Amino acid sequence: MPFLDVLTSGQLLFAALVTGSLYALVALGLNLVYGTMRMLNVAHGDLVMLGAYAAYWAFTLAGVSPLAAAPVVAGVGAALGYALYRGLFQRLIGGAQIDAGRVEANSLLLFFGLSIILQNVAALAFTPNNRAYQYLDNVVRIGNVSMTGNRIAVLAIAGLTCIAVALFLSRSVAGLAMRAVIERREAAYIVGVDVDRVQWSSFALGFGCAGLAGVLLSMLEQFSPFSGFPFTVAGFIVIILGGLGNLLAGLLAALLLGVIETYGVALTSANLRSVLLYGVFVGALVLFPNGLLARLKGRR
Amino acid sequence: MRTQGIDRRTWFGLLLATAAALAPGCATAQADKPLRLGFSMARTGMLANATPSQANTYELWREQVNARGGMDVGGVKRKVEFVTYDDQSKPEQAVRIYEKLITDDKVDLLLAPWGTPFHISIAPVLEKYKFPMVGNTAASVALRQVKPGYIWFPTSAIPDRIAVELVAMLKQNGAKSAVVIANVLPFTKEIKNALEPELKKGGIDVKLSTEYPPDIKDMTSILTQAKQANPDAVLALAYPGDSVLYAKQAKELGLNSPFQFIAIGPSDAFFPKAVGPTSTDGVVTIAHWSPRPEWKGSQAFYDAYTKKFGEDPDYLNSALAWMSLEILEKAVAKNGLDKEKIRATIAKDTFETINGPVRFDGVQNAITPTAFVQYQGGKMQIVWPSSIASAKYQPKKGW
What we know:
heterodimer, A: mainly alpha, two-stranded antiparallel ribbon, 13 helices, 75% helix, globular, B: alpha/beta, Rossmann fold, 2 domains, elongated
């Protein structure tokens, strides 16, 4: 089979979609919290890591399938998000007017501390051992594309969740309120949007997404208490590419990242992965400082 | 008045008497004082997930030594306690820690940190304070550049030796073609550099040779090309983090070459849990130990480790850690805590360990052969070289 056929075979497309959808889910949660409150959650990847541990323990100790554990873990994540918002982060934000610079800086420090605490508590409680389990790893062949069950499940769940959140944001009143707060915070206040509710619900939704992403991650690869940080980085690349706070563009940027990781590597060399990734990132920042889809959004 | 009080002379006498009474007590107190062994370990940071198999082995050893009354220090048994710090996966931090252990904590003996860069970084500190330490989890051709004297490396898994032995093993099992996929981190990169010319010399057709970065998340494009090459052997020079990614995606894509070599990762207990027993079976990896009746204590070590930690020891790192402790124990039993004598003993004696006899030539183990193990029926067996093999190599039957 010549190389061109590899590129068009669908095998790479599948890989790009799996990677992209997981990034999209991670970035979505990060973007929600940033968009509505201008908070930089650098502990986001560590929440993903905790989600992975939750699924791991549920599977190995109680034999609960990660698919069944997923909604529970997402729910617990959301509750944790709510609690943290009420207990720790609510006081950072003022009322209608938000001093973005101050909130960004203070939240960065708080979340950084949270990240270190989560990593080290996880290392103490769970040991730094690599953890992994085997679930749904039968190979399914469709045409000339072969896929393992768990990767199909990850693609389906992450993809559907992203679509559901996108629909929620564009169709439901609560979702529109969320976008209103993201785009015109003061105006949202004036027209009577319950900004506090929007804030705690985006915190909860963001943390829930992170927990869910963790469950999916645990089905794919091994992880340790220190596996979260790369996901924080990937998440930030995605949301900066898409435009900070621009949720729908973030989803597309995540897919772009997945495409770069698979097709870029296939066309050049795996060693150039980071060069390609950060090259596109820096290039996009220089050419489109407000995000790749900023112009599109402005027109709408 | 004099008769009522105690005069100065009596005081002095009492004091002397007390001192005399306490003197032998002091000697006992020295023996009662626990022996302090210092080391640094990556408990946090990017390498922390690789260190438990070594740290666990240290723990097990301390427990066993103290249960039998303590470590033999030139004929006197002394309980053992650890002085240990987290080096945060940073070699420069380990350098500071070992300086502190020697000068500030004044530990009696030193144990090794985890990993090649850490061993190499602290070697000058050991040299400076003339403090002998038996290394363990370090493997690199660069070890030969380390000045011999106060550090030794018991491993035989040195990249250029691995290349020679691997090609010999491939030839013996009839492999005519191979694909090499290498992580760019130092150890696997060194193997790749040594392996390519060796494969050529051995007449094995290298159909694809490629590298990938440690943070790789998807191997689809590399493995699709590897599959097209349809080689007799896939030599995946992976680290623990990507060994599982390789195995899972090789299964997904049906990369079914009969000889499947994965450099590091499979010898750790998490690997079979991650990819499942069927996929694990037949994988060949680097290790030179397995429980064998010929190696005294090897089965006992395996049993004690699995009992305490509920999983298999790492056949490479746990075994090396235990060997280093055995060597240190014997040297200290013979010499007490005299550092120069300990150094001289380690440098020239032959030690019986759970991995057979070990003798150092300069910094390197001169006896233990470079070897490979294969998963067979859920257990790792030494399949190369035949001099220490515990089972015969079997071609892998798919994933």
